[in-house]
Amino acid sequence: MTDPFDVLRAPVTPAQPDPRFAARLRARLERALDLPEGVAVTDISVPQPPATPPEEQEAGSRAPLRQGDIGYASLWVLDVARAAAFYTAVLGVEYLPGHGPRGMQAPGLAPPQALWQSDAGPALFCSYVVDDAVAAMERVRAAGGQAGEPVPQAYGLRADCTDTDGVRFAVYQPPAGARPASGTSRVT
Length: 188
What we know:
Elements: H1 6-9, H2 19-33, E1 70-77, H3 80-91, E2 96-97, E3 103-106, E4 113-117, E5 123-129, H4 133-142, E6 146-147, E7 151-153, E8 156-162, E9 168-173
């Protein structure tokens, strides 16, 4: 029997990827790593973050999520594989298996995005950031919509809702001081 680790001892063969592919991959890695502005994947040193509070930093930097921001978007479709192939061809976005067989995620995007199989037909499902999930649930109900009780999730407190036209959405309250990483998403 051959040693399965022999392949690790073989000399490294450099690859010559397509330059456009390499540029897209580098850009995705930079987004996924949420690097400070001006730092590229090829840099060997990372500058210290500025001492300036985030709200006073220059316009190119990522601000914390605020009430009303879309914190997560999911496109509900009849055929996830077909939709993934379409959006990969159109946008160059790579979809990976999600949480369960009915979903796929596109890591590294902001806000986090996914595809979800829905037998009810196509829809855009958004999860909106709120400061207080319980208060938001009450506001949805007071405005004539429907809202479930907030449920704790790994990414915060979420309440599933429906507006007065029947459009489904969710509100979620991130944990105190947290903001989801650009590649983190949950298919709901």
